[in-house]
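Q: I'm building a small set of examples for a reading group on sequence design. Run inverse folding on the following structure and report the sequence directly after it, with nothing in between.
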């Protein structure tokens, strides 16, 4: 067995395995660990790999899926604030970061590759999938996202086709029950989305609360993990943003990026040293009527995953 040969053959699949593990786990950090675990398991079993029975890609996906199932045993679901608590009505509510919750994390996506499975990485869908038991989640991803035949899924999970079909039916029913309305929004084209986000950035950097709220829909949702807070409505959004500028000052800069196939920005606030420091990663859902959802992820460690600097001049 040649390790260099294995690495050469497996490396082209590393990124798609990372995406697969993220869909299962809802965490980019955990997904990276599980890709490493997958490749380690695959290398140890490489001598038993039979190219006549399955392609290397299929074989690696089997290993990754089962590694994720093992990792998920005993774990609770990853969540967004809107999936845990009621909407907050007080714009002055204390912002206390909770480390007791396993929070959903955003995933950096390449706009050029996003069309391959458009919509399959959206935050609303990933959050909804967290409600599914691990094996149902695996079946749903393999069948509805990766388009695997039922028989192949049964073999990968060491079960029967009837069990796969049953799990798939239950998973689809649960997602329908959750009603992921955000994925049904009437999306504008990419040029219109860019225009809305550009206007949002200009208003945000100018501390223009009125300008910000004009870009929002009436029932816009603002949430901010790891703080268990979320707000509904243009008025609540504006009141909270006024509070942000009062607390942190009006000097902000933003850098565009893409998360979960959705427009996103890295937000930086000016510190006492005059430099702009990483503050939050904001992920938007945009409809033709305006911005319907903004998930503000606190945590400077996320910036590195998105290739964003930790501070700016």
């Amino acid at each position: 067995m040649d390790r260099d040969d294995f690495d050469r053959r497996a490396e082209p699949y590393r990124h798609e395995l990372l995406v697969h593990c993220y869909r299962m786990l809802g965490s980019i950090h955990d997904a990276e660990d599980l890709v490493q675990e997958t490749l380690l398991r695959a290398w140890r079993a490489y001598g038993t790999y039979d190219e006549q029975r399955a392609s290397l890609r299929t074989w690696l996906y089997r290993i990754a899926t089962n590694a994720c199932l093992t990792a998920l045993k005993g774990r609770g679901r990853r969540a967004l604030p809107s999936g845990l608590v009621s909407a907050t009505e007080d714009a002055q509510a204390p912002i206390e970061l909770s480390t007791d919750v396993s929070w959903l994390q955003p995933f950096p996506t390449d706009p050029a590759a996003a069309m391959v499975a458009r919509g399959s990485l959206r935050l609303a869908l990933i959050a909804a999938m967290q409600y599914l038991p691990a094996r149902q989640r695996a079946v749903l991803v393999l069948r509805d996202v990766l388009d695997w035949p039922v028989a192949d899924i049964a073999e990968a999970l060491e079960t029967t086709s009837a069990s796969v079909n049953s799990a798939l039916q239950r998973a689809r029913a649960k997602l329908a029950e959750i009603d992921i309305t955000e994925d049904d929004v009437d999306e504008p084209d990419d040029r219109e989305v860019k225009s809305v986000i550009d206007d949002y950035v200009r208003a945000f950097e100018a501390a223009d609360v009125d300008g910000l709220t004009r870009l929002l829909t009436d029932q816009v949702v603002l949430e901010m993990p790891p703080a268990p807070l979320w707000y509904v409505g243009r008025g609540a959004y504006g009141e909270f943003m006024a509070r942000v500028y009062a607390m942190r000052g009006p000097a902000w800069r933003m850098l565009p990026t893409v998360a979960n196939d959705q427009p996103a920005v890295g937000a930086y606030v000016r510190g006492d040293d005059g430099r702009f420091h990483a503050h939050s990663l904001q992920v938007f859902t945009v409809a033709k009527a305006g911005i319907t959802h903004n998930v503000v992820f606190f945590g400077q460690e996320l910036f590195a995953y998105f290739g964003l600097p930790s501070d700016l001049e």
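Residues 63 and 131 are 23 Å apart (CA to CA).
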